[in-house]
Design goal:
By secondary structure, this protein is mostly helical. Helix content is 83%, strand content 0%. It has one domain.
Length: 295
């Protein structure tokens, strides 16, 4: 059951990373703050890989064509998913975009079944649906526009969730393509490759179209360095989870991130939890509990 511990640590690390990236958005802009997790995270991923290989006393597995294809697809899907999410938010429907993106857990189960042959039992399907429903209840605030006028952000949000799901499945496919190497070495190798691809793509984009944002990220290097470390740290544990079980299991358990985020909001910002949010969090806990029983 190591995958459970990995998913919980990853969700906690991602909460910290999101909080740090949020504080950088004002000075770097959305895209500038986003690239920090890749450009500053890549060196840490290489460090993780060096340590893991040295401790295990094994060579880093050589990449195959299947590994490169899956990892590149996963890395690119994650970038595109982020772009679609930002587009949905720019449409003026933050809560709708967030809620629809959280359908990722359902979609990753479907894509994992279709592309990787991951098993789907009725209990797991029910657990994924219950936990996802809970997240949507938490994210969907009263007064949210679900009318025809809000169709565009809804579609963008669902598409973003689908691409995040494809990213998770692609990463798991890359990990599996590395063969018989230890699970932790396969996970860390895939992390280094994916962050390297993403750092190259976004770094090239910023050099061509937004050098000012890139320069500002170097000016606030201390905050950027911490955000990059937390991004690489969280991804390391997501990937460890993917190497041990299906992406659907990991992503569903990872929905406890919404509980961590609520705790941070209350502790740091003094925000109280409403009855609706409490009901949604109860659904998340129920879905995760069912998943653990079915695992």
């Amino acid at each position: 059951m190591l995958w459970m511990l990995a998913a919980l640590v990853a969700a906690a690390g991602q909460t910290a990373r999101n909080a740090m990236q949020s504080s950088l958005t004002a000075s770097l802009g959305t895209l500038g703050a986003t690239q920090v997790r890749f450009i500053y995270g890549f060196p840490f991923a290489l460090g993780f890989l060096a340590v893991v290989a040295a401790v295990a006393r094994v060579s880093v597995p050589a990449p195959s064509a299947a590994f490169i294809g899956c990892t590149c697809a996963g890395a690119l899907a994650q970038i595109l998913a982020t772009a679609l999410l930002l587009s949905a938010m720019r449409a003026g429907a933050f809560s709708v975009a967030t809620a629809c993106t959280k359908t990722e857990a359902v979609q990753v189960a479907l894509f994992g079944f279709l592309f990787l042959g991951d098993a789907l039992t009725p209990a797991r399907i029910a657990a994924i649906a219950i936990a996802t429903g809970g997240v949507i209840v938490v994210a969907s605030k009263p007064g949210t526009d679900w009318s025809a006028r809000g169709v565009k952000p809804v579609l963008l949000g669902i598409a973003s969730g689908g691409l995040f799901a494809l990213a998770a499945v692609g990463i798991r496919g890359g990990i599996l393509a590395l063969g018989d190497a230890p699970y932790f070495l396969r996970a860390t190798t895939t992390l280094a490759w994916s962050l390297g691809i993403q750092a190259f793509l976004l770094g090239t984009w910023l050099l061509a179209f937004d050098r000012a944002a890139l320069a500002r990220s170097f000016a606030v290097w201390r905050q950027s360095l911490f955000a990059g470390f937390m991004g690489a740290f969280a991804s390391q544990f997501w990937f460890l989870g993917f190497s041990l079980t299906t992406a659907a299991n990991v992503r569903t358990l990872g929905l406890v991130e919404v509980l961590f985020a609520q705790a941070v909001s209350r502790r740091v910002f003094g925000q109280r939890v409403s009855a609706r949010e409490a009901a949604g969090m109860a659904l998340v806990v129920a879905g995760v509990a069912l998943l653990l029983l079915a695992a």
